[in-house]
Design brief:
- The complex is a heterotrimer.
- Chain A is an all-alpha fold.
- Chain A has 17 helices and two strands.
- By secondary structure, chain B is α/β, with parallel strands linked by helices.
- Chain B folds into two domains: 194 residues, Rossmann fold (3-Layer(aba) Sandwich), CATH 3.40.50; 148 residues, Response regulator (Rossmann fold).
- In chain B, the strands form four sheets. Chain B has a seven-stranded mixed sheet, with helices on both faces.
- In chain B, α2 crosses α11, α3 runs parallel beside α4 and α11 packs across α12.
- The termini of chain B are far apart.
- In chain C, α1 packs antiparallel against α8, α5 crosses α6 and α9 crosses α10.
- Chain C has eleven helices and two strands, in the order ααααββααααααα.
- Chain C starts with a helix and ends in a 17-residue tail after the last helix.
- Classes of the chains: A mainly alpha, B alpha/beta, C mainly alpha.
């Protein structure tokens, strides 16, 4: 596993003073620039385009959230969507039954998802590799069934409608402009979290676990605590996205909120972009979501067919992900894609 | 080390630039795409994913409508003949995508929308339609829940979900002899099916039948054996399934396997589709079904003629017998076209008002909406599979054959 | 009581069918460490092949399944040889994504070629049933069950008693050592994948005979295979059979004693519990527990 995501060496600690500051601040500066650009972009967009870009923000946040547990820590969570569903249903249920404001329901959903992550993380994170993947998948599928089976609370298969109009509405619907900003905020938050993690002790602990968990333990890292914390953070971010999504959708259904396909998309975005980096999942999410939107508009019947072919080609030629490929290629001066193929083929 | 950081910076800068460029580029190209001389309708369709089959039929219905209307020269709006142009998009059978596409149509200046397939998709779309001030003709979202939200801009040409099972109960009550006594209900657990089951149970209780409490199973499941094992011990005279095709087939097949042998099966949605009799063969014989439309539905209109004409057109155009999913789509499109003609305008508010006031006969039967936007003025038809063919047995005025009772041999 | 017996019998038969679907998936995972997300689409493709043969050539699915298996074997061999082998040494995510792309491609391809209509391979006998006291045993499902057991036994015999089988086993345990022994890993991997696709085709033909199918069902078959393969222990053929039977029983009993909508929840609960309590699966030590990663 370790071949894809080499831990970034802690170069900023060894570097000399002026370069240290410059290199430390660069990503933050870029992030600020990106946010400013996105805010500027908003005034240029029509409603429909705004929604498309909002969907891209959503996937940026989701991909980055998965990256925390799947990319940094190396635990292939195949049930990530469970947090999305829990966040979404927590928001819908509290807004409908407790008449909470969305602004209260949102943080509650995040906390709920984080707690859920900690509770299931304790037993499940003892499992490794495929077993962890399948167990989380089982949890996600099981949760969907549970939500479907308590219609009194969740509306069951018929879905639940978040009150956004009339006197039942606890928070007015935000409109496309509002949701653009909301999802931009969530995407920014996830990027900030990923950036912070990628550069502090905790992040290095996670990478150590990814490379060799036993050795990491021997080095004095409390691996259980680090893993559960990473899982909770990842869950919280995903839960927040789910909460915003539920409010945006108004009507939500268990089939969609716990859709395995969402998990697979997160994984695809992270891996194609470059897992274990901050930039990779960002590029992967933007690129893939934009591409799939474009294909759907241009090829109404054959778009998933084409998307499948593109994923196959991308995986064969860029198995380590785009960002990792560029990094390695710059280091070695070898830009040949065939070298990638040679590396993993039998 | 430096090269790494520079790479990162270059990439990020390139992304930002690309996004900004994309944004600037699209501003010019977007906007009001409705050309003069055409009437543009937007349709988000389930062309891929779980509902692809029904989505394809719905698309046929919309396309036939486009063709028929344009064959007469187009839509007459205040003396001008506008060419009808329906823009199709794929919603991948996901409600969130269906809703997003409605937003995108709005962005392109398309205010008049034809619905996607299924209650979940339509329900999500209706919320967006309301918000954007668009208007939607709903061809396939029958769940009464959609119309309980106070929406004012969504109009369904089809009978509401509560009628699906209830119409079969009425038909059995009217035609069956000897009269059955107990009725068991099996239902998928999605909103539309549950609403249908409830409507059927209410009707059965009202008519004095003994109702065995409904058994649910997961939507889309092909193993309904435990629900059947449950009701077998109650020996129901009639088994009503509020289901979709795959569950409907499973009920008949597995009842046969497990020795549940009532006087008749009745199922929503499944039996009228040709696939039902094809997959079940002789087991399909005698199964009752409810249908939004059949070839003997009464009424005619200037574009499609009668139901018989309509069926012939579908057969000619697409090479298969007409399905009610075709018909309800064409009817939704027809309602929209007639409303535009009545309004003499393509303005969304005018079209909404004239849809609300629409009261017309058509190949689909009466099209008229109550204050919630549902078409409660048209009866559903009840069909029965007889000798491998789907024939209408109820209501009496459009019946092609008399009910064979008991339905199972 | 008779309801319990009936549910048990039906659950076991259903479980046999599920095991047949999962056994090829488990084989590929065990030998190559590849999670084949396209497995469900292979099952559906097998069902279409069986259907085509029956409708156009009048071949009974019990014979047709061998033809379908042969076709799928060739296709599977080719896919592994010229596609998956390109990335087989990469981390598991990569092969996972590759097969995900493959399944998108195949499912949408089938949608375009065969349309999304539901189909079923109709035979005279599949939906008749035998009565044993108060319990009814559906013939089609009984046949599918028998085939599942036969296939599993045959597969175990193949793997343990033939040269090619031992080559598969050896490559699965330690590819490096196997190569030193002169086993051509590329060929063996392709054979394994072809075998798995052929098994999927047999399962698909049976699914088509007793149930309905359409391209959209591919995903749920992959998911079921996942669950069953893990329950049984990866790469363990008898384990897959046992896992399938367990899932079939759990779903059937859950449907009888809880509400019918809880069946899936119960299946996943069993999965998670088994994983947490006994991660190597139900059947002892998995064949490939001794695997050496290269």
């Amino acid at each position: 596993m370790s071949t894809v995501t080499e831990a970034e060496p802690s170069f900023d600690r060894q570097a000399t003073g002026s370069r240290l500051d410059w290199q430390r601040m660069l990503p933050w500066g870029l992030l600020a620039l990106l946010m400013a650009a996105m805010l500027g972009l908003q005034s240029q967009l029509y409603i429909g385009q705004e929604r498309t870009v909002t969907a891209i923000f959503m996937f940026v946040a989701l991909a980055q959230a998965w990256n925390v547990i799947g990319g940094f820590t190396g635990y292939a969570c195949f049930g990530q969507v469970v947090f999305f569903g829990i966040g979404g249903y927590a928001t819908a249920v509290t807004m409908v039954h407790w008449h909470l404001s969305f602004w209260l329901a949102l943080p509650l959903s995040g906390v709920g998802a984080a707690l859920f992550g900690a509770v299931i993380g304790l037993p499940l994170l003892r499992l490794k590799g495929h077993y962890f993947a399948i167990a989380t998948l089982g949890v996600a599928e099981g949760m969907r069934e549970v939500v479907t089976n308590v219609p009194a609370l969740t509306g069951g298969g018929a879905g639940i409608t978040v009150p956004t109009v009339g006197e039942d509405a606890t928070t007015a619907y935000l409109g496309n402009d509002g949701f653009y900003l909301l999802f931009l905020g969530i995407a920014a938050l996830s990027l900030v979290v990923a950036l912070v993690i990628s550069r502090n002790r905790f992040g290095f602990a996670l990478r150590a676990i990814h490379q060799d968990e036993d050795a990491a333990g021997a080095m004095g890292i409390n691996t259980t605590r680090a893993k559960v914390l990473a899982f909770s953070i990842s869950g919280m971010l995903t839960g927040l996205v789910g909460a915003c999504y539920a409010f945006q959708q108004v009507v939500i259904f268990p089939d969609r909120l716990f859709d395995v396909e969402l998990t697979v998309l997160m994984v695809v975005m992270v891996v194609i972009g470059g897992s274990g980096t901050v930039l990779g999942p960002l590029l992967g999410a933007v690129g893939l979501q934009y591409l799939s939107e474009y294909l759907r508009h241009s090829y109404t019947e054959a778009h998933t067919f084409i998307l499948g072919a593109i994923i196959i080609v991308a995986v064969v030629f860029l198995p380590q992900g785009f960002v990792n490929y560029v990094r390695e290629a710059r280091r070695s001066g070898d830009y040949s894609l065939l070298a990638n193929v040679r590396r993993y083929r039998l | 080390m430096r090269s790494k950081a520079t790479a990162t910076a270059t990439l990020a800068a390139a992304t930002t630039a690309a996004l900004l460029l994309a944004a600037c580029g699209s501003k010019g190209s977007s906007g009001d795409s409705t050309e003069s001389g055409t009437l543009t309708l937007g349709a988000a369709m389930s062309l891929t994913g779980a509902l692809a089959r029904e989505g394809a039929l719905t698309k046929e219905g919309y396309q036939l409508c486009e063709k028929k209307v344009n064959a007469t020269g187009g839509v007459d709006v205040g003396g001008d003949k506008l060419t009808l142009d329906i823009k199709f998009q794929d919603d991948t059978s996901e409600p969130d995508v269906a809703a997003q596409l409605v937003d995108q149509f709005n962005d392109d200046g398309v205010k008049l929308i034809l619905s996607s397939y299924g209650s979940a998709n339509t329900q999500s779309q209706a919320a967006v339609i309301e918000r954007n001030g668009q208007v939607m003709a709903d061809s396939a979202g029958a769940d009464n829940e959609i119309f309980a939200q106070g929406y004012e801009r969504t109009f369904a040409v089809l009978s509401p979900a509560t009628e699906y099972a209830a119409s079969m109960i009425k038909a059995i009550d009217e035609l069956a002899s000897p009269k059955p006594e107990t009725i068991a209900f099996l239902s998928a657990d999605d909103g539309f099916s549950k609403t249908g089951a409830k409507g059927g149970m209410d009707e059965a209780e009202k008519l004095g039948y003994e109702v065995i409490p409904v058994e649910y199973f997961p939507e889309g499941s092909t193993d309904v054996s435990s629900a059947i094992t449950h009701v077998t011990s109650d020996h129901p005279d009639v088994v009503i399934g509020t289901v979709h095709l795959e569950e409907g087939v499973a009920i008949v097949k597995q009842s046969h396997e497990l020795g549940l042998n009532p006087q008749a099966f009745g199922e929503t949605v499944a039996p009228p589709t040709p696939d039902f009799a094809k997959t079940l063969g002789s087991l399909a014989e005698g199964v009752l079904g409810s249908s939004q439309w059949t070839e003997t539905t009464k009424g005619e209109d200037k574009y499609f003629g009668t139901a018989k004409d309509y069926a012939a057109d579908i057969e000619k155009e697409y090479g298969h017998p007409a399905d009610y999913h075709d018909a309800e789509a064409s009817a939704a499109c027809l309602a929209m076209v007639l409303a535009v003609e009545d309004a003499g305008s393509t303005d969304a508010d005018d079209v909404r008002d004239s849809l609300a006031a629409l009261d017309t006969e058509s190949f689909f039967g009466t099209i008229k909406f109550d204050e919630t936007g549902q078409n409660i003025y048209k009866p559903m038809s009840v069909i029965q599979v007889q000798h491998g063919k789907v024939v209408t047995v109820w209501p009496k005025e459009s019946a092609e054959a008399s009910l064979v009772w008991p339905g199972t041999s | 009581m008779s309801a319990f017996l009936q549910a048990t019998v039906y659950g076991l038969l259903q479980g046999g069918l599920l095991a047949l679907v999962a056994v090829g998936f488990s084989l590929v995972w065990g030998v190559m460490n590849v999670v084949n997300l396209a497995h469900g689409s292979f099952v559906i493709m097998g069902a279409y092949l069986g259907w085509e043969l029956q409708v156009h050539a009048g071949i009974d699915p019990l014979l047709g399944m061998f033809a379908a298996a042969a076709v799928m074997f060739v296709l599977g061999y080719a896919i592994q040889r010229w596609l998956i082998n390109l990335v087989v040494n990469a981390p598991i995510f990569i092969t996972l994504l590759l097969t995900f792309g493959l399944s998108l491609l195949i499912v949408q391809g089938m949608n375009i070629i065969f349309s999304a209509n539901y189909r079923s391979i109709s035979t005279g006998y599949a939906s008749t049933s035998l009565s044993m006291g108060s319990v009814r045993v559906p013939l089609g499902r009984l046949i599918a069950f028998g085939i599942a057991v036969l296939v599993t036994v045959a597969l175990v015999a193949l793997v343990n008693r033939t040269r090619i089988g031992l080559a598969i086993l050896a490559t699965g345990m330690d590819r490096g050592a196997a190569r030193l022994m002169g086993i051509p890993a590329r060929h063996v991997y392709s054979l394994t994948f072809g075998l798995s696709a052929a098994l999927a085709a047999i399962a698909g033909t049976m699914v088509g005979t007793v149930d309905t199918f359409s391209p959209a069902a591919a995903g749920s078959f992959t998911l079921l295979s996942f669950v069953i393969a893990v329950l049984g222990g990866l790469g363990n053929m008898y384990g897959a059979l046992l896992g399938g039977l367990l899932i079939g029983l759990v779903e059937s009993w859950a449907g009888l004693y809880l509400s019918g909508t809880w069946v899936n929840a119960m299946a996943f609960l069993v999965l998670v519990v088994v994983l947490v309590v006994r991660p190597s699966g139900l059947v002892g030590r998995a064949y490939y527990a001794a695997r050496v990663e290269v």
